[in-house]
């Protein structure tokens, strides 16, 4: 029986897993997760939790969500909890894991306009009201990047957004809020580990552009 001790992964092993999640190579990801879990005598979900880039803080869920690899994302989420269960605190922490800039997998799916990934994450227990280090929630990020389909769905179906922020900095109906960001504060880098070939507008007006992942 697998132990509850977290796996110890090498840098190369983490890089391989992140690559497979980023590119949507599901079979290779499944094979690697299974082999590493067996070698480390842990559950595959422990590998999922441990496989995080030490510099950017990006995990497998970030990569799959940012690049719109819905089947890969669904598979990874099945490792955490069954559809009939509510996520445990540990599982919720993984689903809502924040990278070095405070962005969750849901932030990345939202700002890249990956609606199916957004739906899958919300169904699994992702919190749409979480804010990143710039003080922005997922609706803000989707709206400022022109992902209106995602914005519309989140405002209609998303829960926990009553106190979220609008792009204009105002408060959405039914709650209070503020940016949590002082004037002139700069955001962290969001470029590490993502697929090449895509750019979206920087999330802070006037900072310029940063490379982000978009579905090929």
Brief sketch in words of this structure:
The chain is built from 10 helices and 2 strands, in the order H-H-H-H-H-H-H-H-H-H-E-E.
The average pLDDT value, as a whole number, equals 76
The number of helical elements comes to: 10
By DSSP, the count of extended strands is 2
Strand neighbour order, sheet with most strands: 1-2
Which H/E pattern describes the elements? Answer: HHHHHHHHHHEE
Low-confidence stretches: 163-216
The shape, in one word, is elongated
| Helix proportion range | 40-55%
The proportion of strand residues reads under 5%
- Summarize the biggest pleated sheet: 2 strands, antiparallel
Q: What structural category characterises the helix and strand content?
A: mainly alpha
Cα distance spanning the termini: 40 Å
Gyration radius from CA atoms, angstroms:
17 Å
- Oligomeric state of this protein: single chain
Protein architecture, described:
This protein has 216 residues and is an all-alpha fold. It has ten helices and two strands, in the order H-H-H-H-H-H-H-H-H-H-E-E. It has helices spanning 11-23, 26-40, 44-50, 60-66, 70-78, 89-95, 105-111, 115-124, 138-144, 148-157; strands at 199-201, 209-211. A two-stranded antiparallel ribbon has the order 1-2. Helix 1 runs parallel beside helix 4 (60-66), helix 4 (60-66) runs parallel beside helix 7 (105-111) and helix 9 (138-144) runs antiparallel to helix 10 (148-157). The N and C termini lie far apart (40 Å). 40% of the residues are buried. The model is unreliable at 163-216 (pLDDT under 50).
